[in-house]
């Protein structure tokens, strides 16, 4: 056979379905390779013992009971936002606006605490905060959903720009409510009365947040897998034309799903303002609205798997902070290690969905 007639040496072939354990074996191998590469990079750039670096990362996340509770709190908030984005993503509505929806939900909670803190009983204030946060987050999400349903606008750009509007709204009210004037920040809201602060369960500061997100996780799993609405979301995500053919009102599904997505982001804002920070800033979401996109994607939109994806990302973040402190390294170095690990994990998805097929030699082709 002439060289001109031969195919490429390597070509990519899409895999069929593979057992679940094979997929996780590929992911596990990717993490091991990532740790080896990180060890080499650490030795070359810093001269530090990579084993000590990894031990410090583990200590930063799990070293003390307080660190564990902080890790679980961070995990719960990230997971909550990822759960909020999942119905929209499963419908192939690319909701990039989680950051803004969380901010608006948090702003609604802060407004209730500041304006009503001394006017209504605490139980009533918390009820109002819950309703306001859910409503504000849902409204912020349904606006791009409505435009997408009616005029097929680009939801990625729309939801992204809504983030910037939300940031500026929060910045405006921070200046309006700043204490003291000229400080540029609000500070702890109702610190003396704790009006609007979510109740603490026993001596566990973040337990209520964790329980709420656990319930949302179970609810979202049931909603997506065993409800009519979840079925409609899946059909719309597969093909809008098929959905219309079987009688599903696509516009209604889009608007309803975005209301749900924004409402859960609003709950995340409530948990941050009322349950954790007791203040509002433009950075209170901390980029989780974007990180949650990776969580949802890595977990293949499975709410249960998202727990482990969230744990991994929060562990890397907490560990990165610890090694920067202990070894006096630039925080950018910790981000480099995090980036390498995430690169390998994301890359492993390629080998789960595709495989490399090599061209047979001329001798083998003749034998075939």
Overview of this protein structure:
The chain is mainly α. 73% of the residues lie in helices and 3% in strands. The protein contains 14 helices and 2 strands, in the order βαααααααααααααβα. Strands 1-2 form a two-stranded antiparallel ribbon. The protein is globular, with a radius of gyration of 24 Å. The chain starts with 9 loop residues before the first strand and ends with a helix. The model has no long low-confidence stretch (mean pLDDT 89).
Helix content: over 70%
Strand order of the largest sheet: 1-2
Q: What is the CA–CA distance across the termini? A: 13 Å
Q: State the oligomer.
A: single chain
Number of strands: 2
Per the principal axes of the C-alpha atoms, what is the gross shape?
globular
The number of helical segments is 14
Order of SSEs: EHHHHHHHHHHHHHEH
Reported for the largest beta sheet, the result is:
2 strands, antiparallel
Low-confidence stretches: none
Average pLDDT over all residues:
89
Content of β-strand? under 5%
Structural class: mainly alpha
Structural Rg: 24 Å
Task: Write a short abstract of this structure.
Helices cover 73% and strands 3% of the residues. It has 368 residues and is mostly helical.
Feature tags:
368 residues, mainly alpha, 14 helices, 2 strands, globular
């Amino acid at each position: 056979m002439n060289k001109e007639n031969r195919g490429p040496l390597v070509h990519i072939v899409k895999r069929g379905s593979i057992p679940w354990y094979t997929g996780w074996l590929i992911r596990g191998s990717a993490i091991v390779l990532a740790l080896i590469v990180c060890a080499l990079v650490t030795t070359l750039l810093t001269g530090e013992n990579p084993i000590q670096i990894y031990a410090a990362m583990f200590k930063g996340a799990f070293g003390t009971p307080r660190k564990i509770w902080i890790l679980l709190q961070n995990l719960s908030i990230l997971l909550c936002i990822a759960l909020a984005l999942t119905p929209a993503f499963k419908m192939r509505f690319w909701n990039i606006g989680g950051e803004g929806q969380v901010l608006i939900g948090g702003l609604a909670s802060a407004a209730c605490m500041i304006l009503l803190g001394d006017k209504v009983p605490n139980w009533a204030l918390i009820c109002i905060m819950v309703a306001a946060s859910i409503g504000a987050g849902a409204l912020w999400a349904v606006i791009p959903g409505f435009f997408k349903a009616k005029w097929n606008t680009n939801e990625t750009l729309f939801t992204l720009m809504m983030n910037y509007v939300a940031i500026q709204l929060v910045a405006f009210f921070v200046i309006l409510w700043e204490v003291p004037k000229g400080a540029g920040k609000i500070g702890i809201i109702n610190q003396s009365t704790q009006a609007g602060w979510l109740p603490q369960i026993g001596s566990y500061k973040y337990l209520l947040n964790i329980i709420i997100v656990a319930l949302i996780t179970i609810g979202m799993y049931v909603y997506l897998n065993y409800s009519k609405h979840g079925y409609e979301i899946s059909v719309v995500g597969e093909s809008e034309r098929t959905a219309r053919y079987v009688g599903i009102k696509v516009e209604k599904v889009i608007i309803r799903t975005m209301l749900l997505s924004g409402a859960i982001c609003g709950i995340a804002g409530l948990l941050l303002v009322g349950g954790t920070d007791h203040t509002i800033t433009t950075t209170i979401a901390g980029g989780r609205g974007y990180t949650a996109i990776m969580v949802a994607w890595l977990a293949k939109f499975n709410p249960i798997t998202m727990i482990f994806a969230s744990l991994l990302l929060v562990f890397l973040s907490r560990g990165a902070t610890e090694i920067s402190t202990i070894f006096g390294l630039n925080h950018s170095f910790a981000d480099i290690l995090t980036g390498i690990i995430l690169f390998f994990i994301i890359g492993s998805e390629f080998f789960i969905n595709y495989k490399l097929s090599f061209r047979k030699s001329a001798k083998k082709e003749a034998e075939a």
